[in-house]
Amino acid sequence: MKTAHLSTPIGTLELQGDEKGLVSLSFIDASESNTTAIPKVLQPVASQLREYFEGKRTQFDLKLSPEGSDFQKKVWNALQTIPYGKTTSYQDMANALGNPKVIRAAAAANGKNPIAIIVPCHRVIGTDGSLTGYTGGLHRKKWLLEHESPVKQGVLF
Predict the structure, then answer these.
(1) Active site residue 121
(2) Quick one: which of 57, 72, 88, 124 could link to 68 by a disulfide (CB 3.0–4.6 Å)?
(3) Is the pTM of this model over 0.85?
(4) List 6, 22, 41, 121, catalytic entry
């Protein structure tokens, strides 16, 4: 397993992966600096994340290898269908999974997503439009949603 740290506008990200793909992408609160030599298996991840934060990338094209239950993987796959700049609710996710009653299980699986940003769990909000929990912190969720918003705050067209 290879590890790298990447500084971003919303904090340091820790990337972990191997030849099978990216296993985890998480926020770390330690003041780790960029890894000077990104391991080869993580270079595409670092490159695409830089493009995302520069506003040049709206979709990721990476091999992913998260570890979880079959249900969790089903939820994480569903998360990847939420388009850039859009949001969905936990209830809509449960409905899309084929059972409106799995809302709590879907929310729990969403919270266990090991690959932040790339598997966009930040795009899931409350039915009332509220920003609900986010493992990386609500301030980061807010930043990511504003970053992806088709209407940029304070920008006139």
Answers:
(1) yes
(2) 72
(3) yes
(4) 121
